[in-house]
Every structure is written in C-alpha cells, then in structure tokens.
Amino acid sequence: MVRSMVTGRHVLFTALLLAFILWMSHSAHAETDPTGTKTGTVADVPAAKPGEPTLAEVADAIGHSRISLNIVWTLITGFLVMFMQAGFAMVETGFTRSKNVAHTMGMNFLVYALGVLGFWICGFALMFGGVGGVASLGGTPGLTNEFTISLFGKTFGLFGFQGFFLNNTVYDVGIYTLFLFQMVFMDTTATIPTGAMAERWKFASFFVYAFFISMFVYPIYGNWVWGGGWLAGLGANFGLGHGHVDFAGSSVVHLVGGVAAFAGALVLGPRLGKYNKDGSSNAIPGHNIPMAIIGTFILAFGWFGFNPGSSLAGNDLRIGVVATNTMLASASGALIATVYMWFRFGKPDPSMMANGMLAGLVAITAPCAFVNAPIAVLIGGVAGFLVVTAVFFIDQKLHVDDPVGAVAVHGVNGIWGVLSLGLFADGSYGDGWNGVPGTVRGLFYGDAGQFVAEIIGAVTCVVFVFTSMYLFFKIANRFVVPMRVSAQTEFEGLDLPEMGIKGYEDVTAPGRE
Fold it and tell me: Can you give the pTM of this predicted structure?
C-alpha cells in the first residue's frame, strides 16, 4: 500500500513537472529568440540608464534623418533644375535676333509662373495622384487614386485624380517636396517650344499654351511613365522588361517638349525671309553667341540636379555614377558636334558646340543610372552627331523653322536617350523597378523586351503629344487667340508691339551716347 502511494505520488509529480516544463517551454518560445533572428530589434534594448534614449528612439531618429536627407537632397536638386530656366532664357535669346530680346526673355520668364500655377491646379494630381507611396520621401500618403481601365485582363493606368490644388488631403512634407521637384521638370518641358517658336509667336497665344501643356499634356504622359500608368506597367503586364523606363526624363521631359515644339512651329510657320521661293533656306544668325554659350553652361550645371536628383534619395549612392555619366555624355556630345561641323563645313561653329553638349545631356538623361562610363561617352557622341544632322534635315528638308534647334536637341535626342537605355542598360541597377524583380537590362545584355518597351514609350509619346498639341494649336489659333503676330510687327521686332519695352535701347537714339 505504501509502495502504491509512493508510486502514485511519483507519477503525479512527474506529470505536474512535465506540464510545468511544457508550459515554460511554450512561454519561453513566445518571448525569447532561440534562432537569433529577432535579437537586437528596437524592442529588445531599453535605455541603459535613466534619461538615456532607448534603441527605439534612436531608430526613430535615424529613420527621420534618412528621410530628412532625402528631402533636403531632392529640394536642393530641384533648386538647381529651377535655375536651368535662366540657362534656357539665355540660350534662346542669344540664338535669336536683338529686336526680339524682351519677347523671348519674357516667354522664358513667365512660363515659370504659368507652369507653377497650372501644375498646382491639376497637373500634379493628374500625373502623381495615383503613384502610391514614395518610400524615399516618407511614404507620400494620399496619392492613391489612379483612373484605370481593364483590357485583356490587365489594368491600365491613365491618370491620377488626387491632389488638385494641393488640397489638405495631400498636406504632407513628402508630397510637397515631390511637387516642387516635379514642377521644375515640367517647366523644362514647357519652355522648349518657346525657342522653336520664337520671333513670331503672339504672347497671348503663348500664355494660353503654357497653361494647357502644364495642366494636361505633360502630366498625362508623365503619369503613364512615372505615375504608375500603363507604360510603366508594360513589364508587369506583358513581360516587356521593366516597362518603359526613363530615369530622369529623356522621353517624359525632353521628347514631350521637342514634339510640342515641332507641332507648334509647324502650325506657326517659318519666320519672314527664312525660305526662298525655290525652297532653299536662309540662315538667320543669333545676335549674341556669348550669351548662348553661358546659358549652355548654366543648363549643364543644372543638369547635375536634373539627373542625380531623380533618385529622390540622397542615400542612393548610385547618384555618383549618374552625375559622372551626365558629365561624360555632355562632353562627348559637344566634341563630336564640333568635329563634325569642322569636318563638314571647315569651321567648328560655337552654336553647334552648345547644341552638341545639350544633345548629349538630353540623351543621357534616361539611361544615366543604368550604364557605365564608356557607354555614356558613346551615347553622348551619337547625340552630338544626331543633333547636327537633325538640325539640317528639319530646316532644309522638312522646312520647319526652329531658330534654336530645339526639336533636334530635345525631340530627336529624347528618342535616342530612351532607345539607348533599351540597348545598353547593363543590369547593375534598378532591381524592382516598376515592380518587376531583377535589375534593368537592355537588348545587348539579354533583355530584348526592355528595348521593345522603350520603343513603345517613344512612339506613344510622339503620337500622343503631336496629336494633342497640333490640335490645340489649330483650335486655339482659330477660336481663342491668333498665334502669329502681324508681318509688320515681325519685321520691326516683337519687343515694343508685344511687350511694351525694348530688350536693348538703341545707343544711337537721341539723348544716348
């Protein structure tokens, strides 16, 4: 009997001990980290001493600093891009005649103000209203409304509709930073046609145009590429690489502006005396080459904000590659354009030096983050050759009068920029771009689909922008305000009739020595 009781107690004790061990084992597993995967998280390290910060507080400070760095970086590069407006004003004014200085400068000045307000009213909302959270800027909450359609079982984003007038639903530091940076990009697009249409464009017509392109045309195409729209989705939906990729705007900014410039110059017609009855072209030299050269250097300087800033992240160290590629392409573009002009005409021509540099910059804008240095030099060099041949083709064959070569610089080389990305992206960068796993690779690095996506994006841009802007110019010219000044005004100069003041006072006028 005693032995039975002892045995029973042992069994009971053993059962209770086993239950306790199992309970402890379960509790310990819930609160500890036997694999080591959770050790060292912010929850594990309280303050070492009273008054010292916890690891959670330190992590918050680091995270805040990281986003702060990105916001400061993005703002500063945006300021650089804003300063490019001075470069555009000087290039375009230098390449045109002195009797139109105030008018050309006036367009380049006011397009900034008109563009800011147009983009604020609805351009930003149409472009980025459905982009989602931009993590590098803190998440950009609220930009979640994209108008989409479904075709072939796929979703196609067409435009956003959140953030009109920067209303209180998007009252966020990250969103405001994104607005500023993207607004100055839009302004680059809007100012490109002011050069191609200079010296005969009525200022009131320009005024209407600036609102139209900043509110509708640029934002809609921009949404398709940068705002989560259907061109960005070509990779996820149809397996075409990472969709249409454009790091900093060869298509979104420059091709849109170049095509708009071509449509406007086509509708507006050539300047008086530009073409003879037999169709031959007469050169109309600009009045101030030094001004144009200085303006070109200002633009090249601003491009170091344009391209590296498109990372939207100061902690993305790829910006060093982007900046260097930008520099190299600008140099090779200038050199090849110079050598080609020298070889063909016996003189190097400073105006083509400038346009060669700008062409190299335009071309490298899309692929700058995805290629190495030798390829950047190649891309810029091809751009330098293309800009010279395109200037003469557009002028002498198409008979479209473009005083500054804007269509050749921005349009032709905007196309070359995105195509070069589709050819030469080397797979060293862009993992997860547009939601597609893996890095971005071009045709020569194993992904033909990426090249196809770039072709689709470029063709779409040309068709959409040309159709939209050509119809706009035609309709506005007939029903809103005539586009062209009178022949008398064009002959005498647009400054006094259109602007009420001369750009330069006549030094031979009475009272002046």
Answer: 0.88
